[in-house]
Amino acid sequence: MGYRVAVVGATGNVGREMLACLAEREFPADEIAAVASPRSQGMEVEFGETGKMLKCQNIEHFDFSGWDIALFAAGSGPAKEYAPKAAKAGCTVIDNSSLFRMDPDVPLIVPEVNPEAIDGYLARNIIANPNCSTAQLVVALKPLHDAATIKRVVVSTYQSVSGAGKEGMDELFNQSRDIFVGDTADAKKFTKQIAFNVIPHIDVFLDDGSTKEEWKMMVETKKILDPKIKLTATCVRVPVFVGHSEAVHIEFENEISAKEAQNILREAPGIMLVDKREDGGYVTPVECVGDGATFISRVREDPTVENGLILWCVSDNLRKGAALNAVQIAELLGRRHLQKAA
Ligand code: 11C
Question: What is its EC number (predicted)?
Protein backbone atom coordinates (compact mmCIF):
# COMPACT_ATOMS: atom_id res chain seq x y z
CA MET A 1 0.00 0.00 0.00
CA GLY A 2 1.37 3.40 -0.98
CA TYR A 3 0.81 6.92 0.28
CA ARG A 4 -2.11 9.27 -0.11
CA VAL A 5 -0.61 12.68 -0.86
CA ALA A 6 -2.34 16.05 -1.09
CA VAL A 7 -0.74 19.02 -2.84
CA VAL A 8 -2.19 22.22 -1.43
CA GLY A 9 -1.83 25.26 -3.67
CA ALA A 10 -1.77 22.98 -6.68
CA THR A 11 -2.43 25.72 -9.25
CA GLY A 12 0.54 27.92 -8.28
CA ASN A 13 4.12 27.89 -9.63
CA VAL A 14 5.40 25.67 -6.81
CA GLY A 15 2.31 23.46 -6.53
CA ARG A 16 2.55 22.54 -10.23
CA GLU A 17 6.25 21.75 -9.82
CA MET A 18 5.44 19.59 -6.77
CA LEU A 19 3.06 17.53 -8.92
CA ALA A 20 5.74 17.30 -11.62
CA CYS A 21 8.39 16.16 -9.11
CA LEU A 22 6.07 13.55 -7.55
CA ALA A 23 5.36 12.16 -11.04
CA GLU A 24 8.97 12.28 -12.31
CA ARG A 25 10.38 10.65 -9.19
CA GLU A 26 7.61 8.04 -9.19
CA PHE A 27 6.77 8.84 -5.60
CA PRO A 28 5.06 5.73 -4.18
CA ALA A 29 1.58 7.25 -4.02
CA ASP A 30 -1.70 5.38 -4.34
CA GLU A 31 -3.60 8.62 -4.60
CA ILE A 32 -2.72 12.26 -5.26
CA ALA A 33 -5.14 15.10 -4.53
CA ALA A 34 -4.81 18.59 -5.99
CA VAL A 35 -6.15 21.05 -3.44
CA ALA A 36 -6.56 24.78 -4.01
CA SER A 37 -8.50 27.88 -3.02
CA PRO A 38 -12.27 27.97 -3.61
CA ARG A 39 -11.83 30.04 -6.78
CA SER A 40 -9.77 27.22 -8.36
CA GLN A 41 -12.23 24.47 -7.44
CA GLY A 42 -12.84 22.24 -10.44
CA MET A 43 -9.85 23.60 -12.38
CA GLU A 44 -7.70 20.82 -13.85
CA VAL A 45 -3.94 20.58 -13.28
CA GLU A 46 -1.49 18.20 -14.93
CA PHE A 47 0.08 15.41 -12.92
CA GLY A 48 3.52 16.12 -14.40
CA GLU A 49 3.92 14.69 -17.89
CA THR A 50 1.93 11.55 -17.18
CA GLY A 51 -1.01 12.83 -19.23
CA LYS A 52 -3.18 12.49 -16.14
CA MET A 53 -5.24 15.50 -15.09
CA LEU A 54 -6.29 16.18 -11.51
CA LYS A 55 -9.38 18.19 -10.63
CA CYS A 56 -8.73 20.75 -7.88
CA GLN A 57 -10.62 20.27 -4.65
CA ASN A 58 -11.64 23.16 -2.45
CA ILE A 59 -9.34 23.53 0.59
CA GLU A 60 -12.29 24.78 2.66
CA HIS A 61 -14.03 21.40 2.37
CA PHE A 62 -11.03 19.08 2.10
CA ASP A 63 -10.87 16.43 4.85
CA PHE A 64 -7.20 15.63 5.59
CA SER A 65 -7.97 12.55 7.70
CA GLY A 66 -6.78 9.40 5.95
CA TRP A 67 -4.18 11.35 3.95
CA ASP A 68 -0.54 10.60 4.84
CA ILE A 69 1.29 13.69 3.59
CA ALA A 70 0.24 17.18 2.53
CA LEU A 71 2.69 19.30 0.56
CA PHE A 72 1.63 22.90 1.19
CA ALA A 73 2.57 25.57 -1.36
CA ALA A 74 -0.21 28.02 -0.65
CA GLY A 75 1.62 30.75 1.30
CA SER A 76 1.57 31.68 4.98
CA GLY A 77 -2.14 32.59 5.24
CA PRO A 78 -3.56 29.22 4.16
CA ALA A 79 -0.71 27.44 6.02
CA LYS A 80 -1.75 29.17 9.24
CA GLU A 81 -5.37 28.21 8.81
CA TYR A 82 -5.13 24.70 7.37
CA ALA A 83 -1.70 23.17 8.20
CA PRO A 84 -2.43 22.67 11.93
CA LYS A 85 -5.84 21.17 11.04
CA ALA A 86 -4.23 18.74 8.59
CA ALA A 87 -1.48 17.86 11.08
CA LYS A 88 -4.03 17.24 13.80
CA ALA A 89 -5.99 14.97 11.45
CA GLY A 90 -2.88 12.76 11.22
CA CYS A 91 -1.60 14.06 7.88
CA THR A 92 2.06 15.16 8.04
CA VAL A 93 2.44 18.64 6.59
CA ILE A 94 5.49 19.72 4.60
CA ASP A 95 5.03 23.46 4.30
CA ASN A 96 6.83 25.70 1.82
CA SER A 97 5.87 29.01 3.46
CA SER A 98 8.02 30.90 5.97
CA LEU A 99 5.37 30.53 8.71
CA PHE A 100 6.75 27.58 10.69
CA ARG A 101 10.44 27.66 9.71
CA MET A 102 11.78 29.18 12.89
CA ASP A 103 9.40 27.31 15.24
CA PRO A 104 11.67 25.20 17.49
CA ASP A 105 9.13 22.36 17.31
CA VAL A 106 9.21 22.28 13.51
CA PRO A 107 12.23 20.80 11.73
CA LEU A 108 13.54 22.84 8.78
CA ILE A 109 14.99 20.32 6.39
CA VAL A 110 17.27 20.10 3.39
CA PRO A 111 17.78 16.35 2.96
CA GLU A 112 21.41 16.63 1.77
CA VAL A 113 22.27 18.74 4.81
CA ASN A 114 20.34 17.85 7.99
CA PRO A 115 18.24 14.71 7.33
CA GLU A 116 18.47 13.58 10.98
CA ALA A 117 16.64 16.72 12.17
CA ILE A 118 13.43 15.38 10.60
CA ASP A 119 12.97 13.12 13.63
CA GLY A 120 11.61 16.11 15.56
CA TYR A 121 8.56 16.43 13.30
CA LEU A 122 6.21 14.56 15.62
CA ALA A 123 6.00 17.49 18.06
CA ARG A 124 3.65 19.28 15.63
CA ASN A 125 3.44 16.83 12.70
CA ILE A 126 4.73 19.70 10.53
CA ILE A 127 8.02 19.97 8.62
CA ALA A 128 9.18 23.24 7.06
CA ASN A 129 10.77 23.69 3.65
CA PRO A 130 13.34 26.51 3.52
CA ASN A 131 13.39 29.65 1.43
CA CYS A 132 14.64 28.95 -2.10
CA SER A 133 17.74 31.11 -1.79
CA THR A 134 18.69 29.33 1.46
CA ALA A 135 18.15 25.79 0.14
CA GLN A 136 20.66 26.00 -2.70
CA LEU A 137 23.14 27.88 -0.51
CA VAL A 138 23.23 25.30 2.29
CA VAL A 139 23.60 22.43 -0.20
CA ALA A 140 26.77 24.18 -1.40
CA LEU A 141 28.03 25.14 2.06
CA LYS A 142 27.51 21.81 3.86
CA PRO A 143 30.40 19.78 2.35
CA LEU A 144 32.76 22.75 2.64
CA HIS A 145 31.74 23.30 6.26
CA ASP A 146 32.43 19.63 7.01
CA ALA A 147 35.90 19.99 5.46
CA ALA A 148 37.15 23.31 6.85
CA THR A 149 34.51 24.82 9.21
CA ILE A 150 32.82 27.96 7.92
CA LYS A 151 33.09 31.08 10.07
CA ARG A 152 31.38 33.72 7.93
CA VAL A 153 29.49 33.99 4.65
CA VAL A 154 28.78 37.11 2.58
CA VAL A 155 26.26 36.37 -0.16
CA SER A 156 24.72 38.49 -2.91
CA THR A 157 21.72 36.98 -4.66
CA TYR A 158 20.33 37.45 -8.16
CA GLN A 159 16.79 36.11 -7.76
CA SER A 160 14.38 35.34 -10.57
CA VAL A 161 10.86 36.74 -10.75
CA SER A 162 9.27 33.28 -10.37
CA GLY A 163 10.16 33.58 -6.68
CA ALA A 164 7.38 36.16 -6.57
CA GLY A 165 4.89 33.74 -8.16
CA LYS A 166 3.09 33.78 -11.49
CA GLU A 167 2.27 37.48 -11.07
CA GLY A 168 5.99 38.24 -10.96
CA MET A 169 6.58 36.27 -14.15
CA ASP A 170 3.65 37.98 -15.89
CA GLU A 171 4.98 41.40 -14.86
CA LEU A 172 8.42 40.74 -16.34
CA PHE A 173 6.85 39.43 -19.55
CA ASN A 174 4.37 42.30 -19.93
CA GLN A 175 6.87 45.03 -19.08
CA SER A 176 9.45 43.64 -21.50
CA ARG A 177 6.87 43.57 -24.28
CA ASP A 178 5.50 47.05 -23.42
CA ILE A 179 8.94 48.65 -23.34
CA PHE A 180 9.87 46.92 -26.58
CA VAL A 181 6.86 48.38 -28.42
CA GLY A 182 7.31 51.81 -26.80
CA ASP A 183 4.47 51.64 -24.23
CA THR A 184 4.82 52.63 -20.57
CA ALA A 185 5.66 49.74 -18.26
CA ASP A 186 3.40 49.58 -15.19
CA ALA A 187 4.90 48.17 -11.97
CA LYS A 188 2.28 46.37 -9.87
CA LYS A 189 3.89 43.33 -8.31
CA PHE A 190 7.35 44.82 -7.88
CA THR A 191 8.10 48.25 -6.41
CA LYS A 192 10.05 49.39 -9.50
CA GLN A 193 10.34 48.39 -13.13
CA ILE A 194 11.84 44.88 -13.30
CA ALA A 195 12.27 44.54 -17.07
CA PHE A 196 15.80 45.63 -18.09
CA ASN A 197 16.48 46.55 -14.46
CA VAL A 198 17.47 45.07 -11.06
CA ILE A 199 15.75 45.76 -7.71
CA PRO A 200 17.68 45.47 -4.42
CA HIS A 201 14.60 44.57 -2.43
CA ILE A 202 12.86 41.23 -1.77
CA ASP A 203 10.18 40.82 0.92
CA VAL A 204 9.50 43.50 3.55
CA PHE A 205 11.98 45.90 5.14
CA LEU A 206 13.12 45.31 8.74
CA ASP A 207 14.10 47.92 11.33
CA ASP A 208 17.84 47.52 10.75
CA GLY A 209 17.54 48.37 7.03
CA SER A 210 17.84 44.78 5.85
CA THR A 211 14.96 42.91 4.19
CA LYS A 212 13.16 39.83 5.44
CA GLU A 213 14.59 37.79 2.55
CA GLU A 214 18.10 38.67 3.77
CA TRP A 215 17.15 37.87 7.37
CA LYS A 216 15.66 34.52 6.31
CA MET A 217 18.91 33.51 4.60
CA MET A 218 20.79 34.23 7.83
CA VAL A 219 18.49 32.54 10.36
CA GLU A 220 17.59 29.57 8.16
CA THR A 221 21.25 28.81 7.39
CA LYS A 222 21.96 28.82 11.12
CA LYS A 223 19.02 26.50 11.86
CA ILE A 224 19.77 24.05 9.05
CA LEU A 225 23.56 24.01 9.04
CA ASP A 226 25.21 25.55 12.12
CA PRO A 227 24.14 28.36 14.48
CA LYS A 228 27.78 29.46 14.77
CA ILE A 229 27.99 30.52 11.11
CA LYS A 230 27.76 34.30 10.63
CA LEU A 231 25.98 35.26 7.42
CA THR A 232 25.11 38.53 5.78
CA ALA A 233 23.13 38.79 2.54
CA THR A 234 22.06 41.32 -0.06
CA CYS A 235 19.09 39.96 -2.00
CA VAL A 236 18.35 41.38 -5.43
CA ARG A 237 15.53 40.70 -7.90
CA VAL A 238 16.73 40.38 -11.48
CA PRO A 239 14.86 40.09 -14.80
CA VAL A 240 15.23 36.31 -15.10
CA PHE A 241 12.13 34.08 -15.22
CA VAL A 242 13.43 31.00 -13.36
CA GLY A 243 16.67 30.25 -11.50
CA HIS A 244 18.28 32.01 -8.56
CA SER A 245 22.01 32.83 -8.67
CA GLU A 246 24.29 33.67 -5.77
CA ALA A 247 27.82 35.07 -5.47
CA VAL A 248 29.08 33.50 -2.23
CA HIS A 249 32.12 34.68 -0.25
CA ILE A 250 33.12 32.23 2.50
CA GLU A 251 35.66 32.53 5.33
CA PHE A 252 36.83 29.29 6.94
CA GLU A 253 38.39 28.39 10.26
CA ASN A 254 40.88 26.12 8.50
CA GLU A 255 42.84 26.29 5.30
CA ILE A 256 41.14 25.04 2.13
CA SER A 257 42.34 25.56 -1.43
CA ALA A 258 40.13 26.12 -4.45
CA LYS A 259 41.30 22.77 -5.84
CA GLU A 260 40.35 20.96 -2.62
CA ALA A 261 36.96 22.69 -2.61
CA GLN A 262 36.34 21.69 -6.23
CA ASN A 263 37.18 18.06 -5.44
CA ILE A 264 34.85 18.08 -2.43
CA LEU A 265 32.00 19.73 -4.34
CA ARG A 266 32.39 17.34 -7.28
CA GLU A 267 31.52 14.42 -4.98
CA ALA A 268 28.92 16.16 -2.80
CA PRO A 269 25.23 15.12 -2.92
CA GLY A 270 22.92 17.41 -4.89
CA ILE A 271 25.77 19.37 -6.46
CA MET A 272 26.91 19.60 -10.06
CA LEU A 273 30.31 21.27 -10.41
CA VAL A 274 30.78 23.07 -13.75
CA ASP A 275 33.95 25.08 -13.35
CA LYS A 276 36.09 25.18 -16.48
CA ARG A 277 37.72 28.61 -16.00
CA GLU A 278 37.12 29.52 -19.64
CA ASP A 279 34.52 31.38 -21.72
CA GLY A 280 31.15 29.80 -20.98
CA GLY A 281 32.63 27.27 -18.56
CA TYR A 282 30.09 28.11 -15.84
CA VAL A 283 26.33 27.72 -15.34
CA THR A 284 23.73 30.46 -15.75
CA PRO A 285 20.07 30.35 -14.64
CA VAL A 286 18.56 29.53 -18.05
CA GLU A 287 20.60 26.34 -18.14
CA CYS A 288 19.39 25.05 -14.77
CA VAL A 289 15.62 25.31 -15.38
CA GLY A 290 13.87 22.01 -14.69
CA ASP A 291 16.98 20.51 -13.10
CA GLY A 292 17.20 19.46 -9.45
CA ALA A 293 20.90 20.12 -8.93
CA THR A 294 22.64 23.02 -7.27
CA PHE A 295 25.23 24.11 -9.82
CA ILE A 296 28.57 25.48 -8.64
CA SER A 297 31.01 27.40 -10.82
CA ARG A 298 33.84 29.97 -10.48
CA VAL A 299 35.39 28.43 -7.34
CA ARG A 300 38.43 30.51 -6.44
CA GLU A 301 40.51 31.65 -3.51
CA ASP A 302 39.80 35.05 -1.95
CA PRO A 303 43.16 36.73 -1.38
CA THR A 304 41.60 39.51 0.74
CA VAL A 305 40.85 37.28 3.76
CA GLU A 306 42.52 34.38 5.55
CA ASN A 307 41.14 31.00 4.40
CA GLY A 308 38.63 32.55 1.99
CA LEU A 309 36.87 31.11 -1.03
CA ILE A 310 34.43 32.62 -3.53
CA LEU A 311 31.98 30.69 -5.65
CA TRP A 312 28.98 31.06 -7.95
CA CYS A 313 25.89 29.01 -7.10
CA VAL A 314 22.82 28.60 -9.37
CA SER A 315 19.70 26.49 -9.02
CA ASP A 316 16.10 26.26 -10.23
CA ASN A 317 14.31 28.05 -7.39
CA LEU A 318 11.03 26.25 -8.11
CA ARG A 319 12.76 22.85 -7.96
CA LYS A 320 15.56 22.51 -5.38
CA GLY A 321 14.45 25.82 -3.91
CA ALA A 322 10.90 24.64 -3.31
CA ALA A 323 9.06 21.69 -4.93
CA LEU A 324 11.87 19.19 -5.27
CA ASN A 325 13.15 19.80 -1.75
CA ALA A 326 9.61 19.26 -0.40
CA VAL A 327 9.27 15.97 -2.32
CA GLN A 328 12.73 14.88 -1.11
CA ILE A 329 11.55 15.61 2.45
CA ALA A 330 8.49 13.42 1.79
CA GLU A 331 10.78 10.64 0.55
CA LEU A 332 12.98 11.01 3.64
CA LEU A 333 9.92 10.96 5.90
CA GLY A 334 8.78 7.77 4.17
CA ARG A 335 12.17 6.07 4.57
CA ARG A 336 12.76 7.10 8.20
CA HIS A 337 9.28 7.07 9.67
CA LEU A 338 6.21 6.10 7.64
CA GLN A 339 7.68 3.14 5.75
CA LYS A 340 4.88 2.44 3.35
CA ALA A 341 5.56 1.12 -0.13
CA ALA A 342 3.49 1.32 -3.29
C1 11C B 1 11.65 35.07 -3.68
N2 11C B 1 12.74 33.58 -2.11
O3 11C B 1 12.49 34.75 -4.54
C4 11C B 1 11.52 34.25 -2.42
C5 11C B 1 10.36 33.31 -2.59
O6 11C B 1 10.14 32.57 2.13
O7 11C B 1 9.46 30.99 0.86
C8 11C B 1 10.12 32.38 -1.43
C9 11C B 1 9.78 33.09 -0.15
C10 11C B 1 9.79 32.15 1.03
O11 11C B 1 10.90 36.02 -3.79
Answer: 1.2.1.11
Say what the pLDDT of residue 342 is.
Answer: 53
Is the reported ipTM for this assembly greater than 0.95? yes
Residue from 138, 161, 199, 213 whose mutation best tests the ligand 1 pocket (most atoms within 8 A of CB)? 213
Query: Is ligand 1 within 6 A of the CB of residue 132?
Result: yes
CATH of domain 3-130+322-338: 3.40.50.720
Q: Which atom of ligand 1 is nearest to the CA of 96?
A: 7
CATH no. of 133-317 = 3.30.360.10
Domain chopping of the chain, boundaries? 3-130+322-338, 133-317
- Distance of CA 79 to CAs 29, 108, 127, 193, 333, Å? 23, 15, 12, 30, 20
Whole-number Å distance, alpha carbon 98 to ligand 1 midpoint, is: 8
What positions carry a catalytic annotation? 132, 244
Q: What is the mean pLDDT of residues 83-104?
A: 98
- Side-chain-facing half-sphere of 25: CA atoms under 13 Å: 21
pTM for the model stands at 0.96
Q: In this model, does residue 340 exceed pLDDT 80?
A: no
Residue 98 beta carbon below 6 angstroms from any ligand 1 atom: yes
Distance (Å) from CA 137 to ligand 1 centroid: 14
Q: How many whole angstroms separate alpha carbon 80 and alpha carbon 5?
A: 19
Among 336, 242, 323, smallest CA distance to 72 is for: 323
